[in-house]
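Hey,
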Amino acid sequence: MSAQGSFNDGDRRHSPTGRGPTAPAYEVLPITTDAARAEAAALATDRVRLLAEQGITISADRARALLREDGALGFYEGGILVGALVLHRDPDMRHWGAYGRDPGLLVSLDPAMAGSIQVGRMLTLWLADYAANSRLMWVWCDVPCEPGAVDEAAQWLLTYLCDLGWETRSPAGLSPTGERVVRLRLRTQARPALAEAISDPHAVGPSAVRAP
């Protein structure tokens, strides 16, 4: 099994909406309650275990912290929680320099939240479409990476996202909080037909996020 393999059904968490059989296969829903955060945290723990079985050591600590932030979203497949991410309001993009001047949306991802490669592909399509519909040009992502020794979590996430079409902007730099990060971006693209596959029935994030 690859590092991006899917979870077994027993490891997945069920959608709180109780979607019907005719609904889109995927849903994007806010993670705003303690119960939803607990489910997402359990998914992160499952993901850490799955990757450990494949020889990739990561921690669920960052994922758990991200899931407590505003803008945390759950991604459900067939009513089952399979991934999560965080959309950030009014991001500080100074460390991106000229690349961060265009209108865009900042997202946080973590190996313990990313899900299988198929889940990542659908999340990537949704992010590009969501940002395009908000009249933005880019989706940005900062991947934390520790200097020195090989950072397995960072390397896994960078490979995962680049395989999905994200572009890296070199070199690595420091975020406004002093964290060393590798910068990635995704060009937005509206896909009206995506609504048939992915439903986001509730307000899921900022309608417009722009760099200063």
